Amino acid sequence: MRTGSEPTTARSALRMRFWLSVWGLVWTIFGTAAFALVGRPGWAAACGVLWLIVTVDMTMILRHIHQGPHYQPGRDVPPYRPPEHRHP
Asked: What whole-number distance in Å separates Cα of residue 66 and Cα of residue 84?
């Protein structure tokens, strides 16, 4: 059932995002090394920038996971109740 409050009550799948970040980290490290070894500095730099972005994203994901159930509720935490008042 949609209530219209999904953006404010949405939950993020942080563990899935973490593992996707790990996958991206592995590939960006591999890409940076491979392009550097074959003499493509532009592509190596692009992969290096992506490596930095993935690392920052992973840091934020881990921070939110460690903040506890307020940011990452488990299966035992029921869904948020819909708002009582609907705004037109």
From this structure: 31
The CA distance from 64 to 16, in Å, is 13
pTM score of the predicted model? 0.65
34 Cβ contact list (under 8 Å, min separation 6) = none
Q: Is the pLDDT of residue 77 over 70?
A: no
Q: CA-to-CA distance for 37 and 2, rounded, in angstroms?
A: 52
How far is C-alpha 2 from the geometric centre of its chain's CA atoms? 24
> b or e along 31-64 (b: 16 or more beta carbons within 10 Å of the residue's beta carbon)?
bbeebeeeeeeeebeebbebbeebeebbeebeeb
